[in-house]
Amino acid sequence: MSRLKQIKTTFASFFKGLKLKQKFVMLYLIGIVIPVIVVDSVVLFHINAYQDREAKQDMENSVLQTLNEFSSVFEQITYLSKNIVNDTSLIEFLNRNYTSEKDYQKAYVEIEGKSALNYYKFIKEVSNIKIYVENDTIVESDNIKRLDDATRRMWWYQKYSESGANSSLFEDITRNAGSAINPHAGVITLVRRFIALNGREALLLMELNYNQVNHTILREQNKTCIYICNNNRVIFASDSKIFKKDERELPSEKQIKGRETVVTRRVPAVGEEWHVYAVSNRQSIVKTLISSKALLLAILGINLLLPTLVINSLVKSVITRLYVLDEHFEGLNSGQLEKIQEDLSGDEISQLFRHYNGCVDKIQELINEIVEKNDEKHALEATKKQAELNALNTQVNPHFMYNTLECICMRSLLKGEKETADIVRCLSVLLRQMSKWDKDVVTIEEELTFVEKYLTIQKYRFAEKIAYEVRVEDSAKDFVIPKLTLVSFVENACVHGIEESIESGDVSVTAHAENSQIIIVVKDTGCGMDEETLDKLRKKIEVVDVNMLYHSKSTGVLNAVMRLRMYFGERLRFTITSVVNEGTRIEIRIDREFQVNRGM
What we know:
Layout: H1 2-16, H2 20-85, H3 88-95, H4 101-114, E1 126-133, E2 144-146, H5 149-152, H6 155-163, E3 167-172, E4 187-193, E5 202-208, H7 210-218, E6 224-230, E7 233-237, H8 254-257, E8 262-269, E9 272-280, H9 285-291, H10 293-333, H11 348-394, H12 398-414, H13 418-435, E10 441-443, H14 444-462, E11 466-472, H15 474-477, E12 480-482, H16 486-498, E13 505-514, E14 517-524, H17 531-543, H18 546-551, H19 556-568, E15 572-579, E16 583-591, H20 593-597
Parallel strand pairs: 1-2, 11-13
Antiparallel strand pairs: 1-5, 3-4, 4-5, 6-7, 6-9, 8-9, 10-12, 13-14, 14-16, 15-16
Helix pairs in contact: 2-7, 2-10, 10-11, 12-13, 13-14, 14-16, 16-19
């Protein structure tokens, strides 16, 4: 494993030092050129091996078919020749001494009808039969000849005498048989001796039809060349090219043995051993490719040239656009927010262009947002300072006011007016809280304590007309929000919801945590708002800013929403719903992780 890790590390460090163009070249060589060469070689090897197996099987089948046909033809010829030389009536006819021509003709007519002499006409491979007999009393005809000195000088008789066998098969190339396959094919002759003659020599000469024998034996040999040899010479062949017109001798058997992909079989016929050779006509795919330059160039072009052109085009496209992207990033570092003109290719680099342009838009948007927020912050700080100034202007010795309220509270308690004392104490707490500007945020628990004091005072004012409920769960108590925001919504509920309603109403404020959110709900059962008024308020809430606060008559809700939105940003979701004579409901949802990110 460590060795493999080391190799991986070496390769990784090597590729890190290469430029992208060099990596593409490496990818092309390793991923295309070498695999193509290896795959093509393997494919060619397997195709060539498959062709060899197919050719071998074709040759085996062809040889088997040829052996069957060859054996069938020569078995018929041998069988016919044996029947003729062993025909007792024919032997008796040849042994007789005839006194006159008339006596011979009478005997010939009798023997012609009952001997096997005319059977050769039913065997298409036999063209003619002649019988040579040592009998001077016979009258020569087409089939019966005298065996005299002139006959003994004939080529076939001399070869037969040299063989010393009872039967022999000879081929005379000097006697052209006009074969279409073998242009100078001679006459093939079978010579067989009559045995049972009284001291007289008699021979059967059977001439074979070369064309017919060759056709019968070697018909339908398209995929394989078949050669039949005897005495080291090619006698029959399905390939006419081996027989050359300008030669007076039959081709040598050695020409066949030296060829590739040869299947050889031996077969006995007419007392001799014949050799059958099969050579495949198929040319291997490798030789085909080598011999066909156009095909070889086409394959090289498809396998190498075409991928090279495609890869070069792709590399050029990628590198050029990456240079463009790099230039724009350099400009981005120097503060130039210039977009890239997007192309329509739709690939990953085009996506990078779009992402870059999106980044430029986002940066510009953030810059604008920061400028806008800075302006708002300055305006809000100015508003806060103005509020502090106004508070200072309205404060006339606040300690005197707090002490006076405390004195009224004490006198009320001494007179037994506990309710009045509680209200005065609540009012004192409200005034103290509103006049403190040392911090801008409070916990929900602190804010709702302030809300509860405010509602207590409202309850004192309106008696049974108003009822309220303030409830906060432990999970939401410590969550921090901007100061005096919830009381603005509660004040709006009391003033515009309950006071303007003829009937009594309820105000409830709840805060709890749900999943990853803090949910605060302020609702009342007052007079509510119609759709038109509610729609206008929602639109103002969507676009509220400092300038709007300066020009609006009622700013409590808008001010609270703006402060919440400036503090929580996109993590705040504010919803307001209202139905006439049923009341208004405000829901505030804040992501809890906001304060985790702020470290609170």
